[in-house]
Design goal:
about 220 residues
Length: about 220
């Protein structure tokens, strides 16, 4: 086998390897755009009204804000149009925003693929940064699926949304929404333990220095 043949074979193998790495990334990006488009279509009637310069009222928005799958997209739409004052106050909390964020994350095809049949808020877990001046806050929920879904046999599972900080607004984007789809342990510390796992394994690699250094005690 001459040198030219070896170079050709080596180049081909490298291209195949590169393709195997790039293709999943491209596919994921395409899927993410499709999901984003689906979320936008859920509030299409509201968007159409705004595009046609029709007046929106809180009554028009209420059912969209109440629905956990359209709540987040509704606020984001109103935010783009400078109409957040119309958003119902009862759904303008971090707990309600986090619930919607988790439901949309679980609906992603690589997760549950659908909205959970039941979802309940459990507690907020605050993790000290070490200087007592600011905290990473995570909102922990439990959720479950009915049969015949593939994970229905697991019963209640935990989902975590965060981190949020002292200055966070309800619909700020949390970078660490996650679930391991484990059965809910029979312990009083399950929510705190799961939040700490997400904090240490999912959140910390993506938290910028700005979040850590923004507190008065760290200056």
């Amino acid at each position: 086998m001459n040198n030219v043949t070896i170079i050709i074979i080596t180049t081909a193998l490298l291209l195949i390897a590169a393709g195997s790495l790039v293709y999943p990334f491209i596919s994921f990006r395409k899927m993410a755009r499709r999901i984003s488009g689906n979320q936008s279509r859920k509030v299409q009637p509201l968007f159409n009204k705004l595009e046609n310069r029709q007046t929106l009222t809180t009554a028009d928005i209420y059912d969209y804000a109440k629905n956990i799958l359209t709540r987040q997209a509704t606020f984001q739409l109103l935010q783009k149009w400078g109409l957040t004052h119309l958003f119902p106050k009862e759904f303008y909390t971090i707990e309600k925003a986090a619930e919607s964020n988790l439901a949309n994350w679980l609906e992603f095809p690589t997760e549950l693929g659908v909205c959970p049949d039941e979802i309940n808020y459990l507690e907020k877990v605050a993790i000290d940064l070490g200087n007592q001046a600011n905290f990473f806050c995570y909102y922990v929920f439990r959720f479950r699926m009915n049969h015949p879904h593939r994970v229905a046999h697991k019963g209640w599972m935990l989902g975590v949304v965060g981190p949020y900080f002292d200055e966070s607004k309800p619909y700020d984007h949390p970078n660490s929404t996650f679930s391991r789809f484990h059965d809910l342990p029979d312990t009083n510390y399950a929510a705190e333990e799961e939040a700490r796992w997400v904090h240490e394994n999912i959140s910390l690699p993506f938290v910028s220095d700005r979040c850590v250094t923004s507190s008065p005690g760290s200056r």
